[in-house]
Structures are given as C-alpha cells and as structure tokens.
Amino acid sequence: MRSSTGLLSLLAGFGLACAHPSRGLIDSELQAKLSTGASISHDASVAPRWSEYGAPHPGTVVSVATEADVQATVQYLVKKNIPFLAQNGGHGWSGAFTLGQNGVLINLRGLNSTTFSADKTQVTIGGGAAIHEVIEQAYANDVQVLTGNCNCVGALGAGLGGGYGNLVGLYGLAIDNYLSFNVVLANGSLVTITPAQEDLWWALRGAGPNFGIVTSAVMKSTPMKQADNTAWTGGLWFTEDKIEKVTQAIEDLKLEAPMNIFLYFLTSNGTPTVLVTVFYFGTEAEGRAAFKSILDIGPYSDTTAVLPQSQWNAGADGFCTKGGRKPTYSAGFNNFVPTTWRQIWNDYNQFLTNPNTSATTVVVECYSLEKTQSFGSDSASFANRDIRFNGFTISWYPDASLDAKAEAFGSGFRDLLRADDGLSSNRTYVNFAFGDEENQEVYNDSTSRLQQLKKKYDPYNVFNQWFDL
Ligand SMILES: Cc1cc2nc3c(=O)[nH]c(=O)nc-3n(C[C@H](O)[C@H](O)[C@H](O)COP(=O)(O)OP(=O)(O)OC[C@H]3O[C@@H](n4cnc5c(N)ncnc54)[C@H](O)[C@@H]3O)c2cc1C
Ligand SMILES: *[C@@H]1O[C@H](CO)[C@@H](O)[C@H](O)[C@H]1NC(C)=O
Ligand SMILES: *[C@@H]1O[C@H](CO)[C@@H](O)[C@H](O)[C@H]1NC(C)=O
Ligand SMILES: *[C@@H]1O[C@H](CO)[C@@H](O)[C@H](O)[C@H]1NC(C)=O
Ligand SMILES: *[C@@H]1O[C@H](CO)[C@@H](O)[C@H](O)[C@H]1NC(C)=O
Ligand SMILES: *[C@@H]1O[C@H](CO)[C@@H](O)[C@H](O)[C@H]1NC(C)=O
Question: How many Cα atoms are found within 13 Å in the side-chain-facing hemisphere of 209?
Fold first, then answer.
C-alpha cells in the first residue's frame, strides 16, 4: 500500500506502518477508501456488547455503510496485518476473543436492511440487521421469516452458526433456509456464494465467521397475512417442588413441528422460580392440547396468550440488556435427568446468595428437530442437528470480583449436564459455547473438512476470533 504523503511513505519504508499503523494512519488511509456514510471511531462504546466478560477491546471501530465498505476495510486491514473482528449484534458470548487495542472492530450495524422479492418468497437480510428489524419489516409486509427468539441479536450472527428460532420445527434452522450469501473473503474479494460453490456454501452454514464477513444473505420466506401469523405462546410458572415432574415431562414430550418448549430457572421479584415457556404455531386450543402433559402438572401462573409474530420475542427482551458481566456456559444433551436438575436448582440458589446476581438465569431450549434432520447432517458444516436439548447458564453481575465464583458455578453446571448427556462425546452448539471447547465439541464430524477448507480459503487465518479452526 502506497501512502499519499512523504511522511507516510517514510514510515512505511521503515516497516513501521506495517507493524502497527497508528490510529491516525488508519483514520486517514482507510477513511479515504470508504463511502461517505462510513465512520471511524476510537470509542468502542459506539458498538456496545451484550457482555463485558471476555469481550474484545478494540482500539478502533470502523462503522461501515455499504457492502463495498466491508471489502475495502478487509483489504486494508489484511494488507496492513492488523487484527480485526466483525460485529453484528454484539451478543457473541464466547470468552475467547483476543482482539485488543491494536485491533479493529468492523461494526456491521449500518447494513441493517431487510428487503423482499416481489412474490415475498425470498428475503435479503443485511449483515448488520438485528432480529427485531427483520421481524418488523417482514410483519409489515405480510411475510413470515424464520428468526431467532431475541430481538436484539444479529440475524446473521445467529444464523451463520446454525440459527435456532420458534419456527425451526416448521422450516428447519436458519442454515437450512439460506439461498445465497454475499461475502468478503480473506483474499479481499466480495463474492456471491450459492450451492454451486460447494465448499464455501457448506462451510459458511455452521462456521461462517471463520470464512468471511457476510454482507448480506438471501433466505427463503413465506408470504403470510398478519392475521394468520399468530401463535399461542408464553409462560407457565411452577413452584420449585415441581422440578422433577416438569423435567421428566419435557423429556417425555413429543415435539410436533409447530411446537417448542423452554425451561428457565430465574428470579421473579427477587425470588428464584421455575418458568416453562411454550410455543405453538396455531390456535390456543391446539396448543393447550399439545402441551397437556405440562399443563397437567399445575402451574401457579399461566401467562400464555395468542400473539402475532411481531410480539413473540417481547417476553425475552430482558435478556437483551447490554453491559455487565455474563459468563455463559453451555452443553448439549439428549436426556433430562430429574435428579441432575434438582442439583442444578440447588447450585443456582447457592450462586444467587452472592450480591447483585439476581439476573442470573439457567435456560434449556427444546425444539422439534425432524424438519432440520430431513436436510441431512452433511448438508452443512453445522454439527448439532442430533442434539435434543441445548442448556446454558448466564451468570449475570456487575463486578469482575465475582468472576471466579461465576466460573465455578457455570463450569459446574456444564459438568453436571455433560455427566449424563446421553452422548458419546461432549457437544455444544457453537453459538452457545463458552469459548474453551475443543473444535471437535462444537464442529463434531465437520472438524477435519472445515480445517482443510480453512487452509485453502483463509491460509493466513485472518478470521480467527470465533471458534478458530
Ligand atoms: C440474548 C440472547 C439471545 C439469543 N437467542 C438466540 C436464538 O434465539 N437462537 C440462536 O440460534 N442463538 C441465540 N443466541 C446466541 C446467538 O446466536 C449468538 O450469541 C450469536 O453469536 C450472536 O450474534 P450477534 O451478531 O448478536 O453477535 P456478534 O458478537 O456481533 O457476532 C458473533 C460472531 O459472529 C460473527 N458475525 C456476526 N455477524 C457476521 C456476519 N454478518 N458475517 C460474518 N461473521 C459475523 C462475529 O464476528 C462474531 O465472531 C442468543 C444470544 C443472546 C445473548
Ligand atoms: C438501521 O439503522 C439505522 C441507524 O443505525 C436506523 O436509523 C434505521 O432505522 C435502521 N433501519 C431499520 C430498518 O431499522
Ligand atoms: C478469492 O477467492 C474466491 C473463492 O475461491 C475466488 O472466487 C476469487 O476469484 C478470489 N479472488 C482473488 C482476488 O483471488
Ligand atoms: C450491588 O449493586 C449496587 C448498585 O446497584 C451497589 O451499590 C452495591 O455496591 C453492589 N454491591 C456489591 C456487593 O457489589
Ligand atoms: C467432557 O466433559 C467432562 C466434564 O466437563 C470432562 O471431564 C471431560 O474431560 C470431557 N471430555 C473430553 C473428551 O473433552
Ligand atoms: C457427532 O459425533 C458423535 C461422536 O462424538 C457421533 O456419534 C455422531 O454421529 C456425530 N453426529 C453427527 C450428526 O455427525
């Protein structure tokens, strides 16, 4: 890269610019290559993160405005050997980020468009769109789109790792519904990847952040009038003495395509309690019949309702609160063992005796898997289709002095789940993993092919911050 002024040429000549270009150099050289809507800042708070635990601490944030801005930024940073990380919603909770003050965060939030084909059977989602933006646009246009269940999360941030959401039983995962990606690769090209590019098509759907920055994705969507786009969903609240019955009932429940069910340990008005959320894409009567075994246990409160898609995620908005420390440990498992869940409840209550921990939550997500399994385990690099339950615990508190206790609680929770997970090896959904897992645990049988493709498409490993291959 030739700089335009004599001073910069001199610095480059001494190799200084290549080793650690100063912030001023990044500003002047890179800004000149970007669209007028893009901006460069040295205040990381312009792109806030969900958790401060293990978070990247970039010295520079490039907020892009166009797909070409992403390409220009990657080309510049690769040439200058400057480490970087893309950020969409900022919820990635892996504690393994290593981006420090010399690093650049590429803030994709400006790429937040959601557009539809004329017949509404395809949606194009920008690389920075948040789930609530996709849902708002879809609902306003009489379209149903598969998304994750939290409004604040990046639509593609979640989708590239797999993408669970309320409609998985009907459509499969996000990765099962993509049609093409626009992506900036390690070699600096902005290319469109379709099923014809077999290698990258397979790799991006499950390990996307390791192969490029997706600037937009085309996905299947379904034309649907607002009045038809409703589900019976909400909370069934149980006293703690029902834990064994509730966990056994979830274990025994056959999840039909329109259904999913989550289990939470959380606090309500300061008191720990057991919440089961149910979802049925259909009528209340159908939903109550499908979840009869859960209802029969006798919740002390029932806050379910028939809601339009635009409101399905509202109940989880509390989880969207950004900031604070939230180390999150996770494990996949294939059977609920009620005695294990009694132990988890006891450990959870013990952790809550620490000050300012009342937002700490234990969650298990349970989806109907037949549809996603119908696509075949080798159709994408995503490696979690055989896992029935994904459990995680978010320890949530303001002060780093509690980190060691939170790590002990979280890893203890994970040990308990792994101990009787019904699986032949430890397994975790990549987007839920803590960050210390071996590749085999998050990528399972896809690991070796991913590693081969990584050598081919990103030989210098510039995309190295997310379950690095
Ligand atoms: C409150 C909450 C709710 C959640 N709900 C769900 C859910 O319903 N379903 C589900 O499957 N998961 C869910 N998750 C997990 C979620 O999938 C991951 O946290 C995901 O990594 C977050 O994406 P993000 O864009 O918000 O985060 P980011 O931290 O911005 O991104 C995470 C990783 O993906 C990379 N990345 C993001 N966008 C792109 C892109 N366009 N191209 C290339 N790489 C990219 C980033 O570089 C980073 O390495 C949830 C997480 C939280 C905290
Ligand atoms: C996209 O983001 C910009 C600012 O970040 C915001 O003004 C705009 O409303 C967003 N677009 C949509 C569709 O939400
Ligand atoms: C970058 O890699 C892609 C995928 O292999 C290829 O299509 C493209 O031509 C490459 N670009 C350059 C500049 O080599
Ligand atoms: C708990 O948080 C409050 C503010 O909400 C703070 O004043 C207090 O010092 C905190 N206590 C501990 C032990 O961290
Ligand atoms: C699986 O997890 C358990 C409990 O955390 C751990 O002791 C064990 O070493 C792990 N196994 C492998 C193969 O990593
Ligand atoms: C994942 O790996 C396990 C061994 O740990 C294996 O039994 C299983 O079949 C693999 N699953 C898939 C979908 O490849």
Answer: 23
User: Ligand 2 centroid vs 151 CA: distance in angstroms?
Assistant: 14
Q: Where in the chain is CATH 3.30.43.10? A: 7-110
Give the ligand at the shortest distance from the Cα of 185.
Answer: 3
The listed CATH number (3.40.50.2000, 3.20.20.70, 3.20.20.370, 3.30.43.10) that belongs to domain 7-110: 3.30.43.10
Nearest CA owner, ligand 6 atom 7: 424
- 434 vs 235: CA distance, rounded Å: 27
May I ask the CATH class of domain 114-225?
alpha beta
Q: How many Å apart are CA 283 and CA 319, to the nearest integer?
A: 27
Longest CA span, the chain: 78
Convert the pLDDT of each residue in 411-460 to its tens digit.
Answer: 999 999 999 999 999 999 999 999 999 999 999 999 999 999 999 999 99
3-state secondary structure of 358: coil
Question: Tokens at residue 281, please?
Answer: 């894409």
CA pair distance 255, 334, nearest whole angstrom: 14
Alpha carbons 87 and 90: distance in angstroms, whole number: 6
Bridge partners, 271 (sequence order): 268
Query: Is the entire prediction scored with pTM above 0.90?
Result: yes
Query: What CA–CA distance (Å, rounded) separates 439 from 70?
Result: 28
- Give dist(CA 161, CA 173) in Å, integer: 10
Q: Among 87, 151, 328, 381, name the best residue to mutate to test ligand 1's pocket (greatest count of ligand atoms within 8 A of Cβ).
A: 87
Nearest to 347 by CA among 269, 416, 420, 270: 416
State the ligand closest to the CA atom of 78. 3
Domain with CATH 3.30.465.10 in the chain: 114-225
pLDDT digits 0-9 by tens, 229-285: 999 999 999 999 999 999 999 999 999 999 999 999 999 999 999 999 999 999 999
- 220 C-alpha to center of ligand 1: Å? 20
**Mutation probe of ligand 5 site: the residue of 426, 434, 444 with most atoms within 8 A of C-beta:** 426
- The residues lining ligand 6, judged by C-beta closer than 6 Å to any ligand atom, are 377, 383, 385-386, 424-425, 444-445
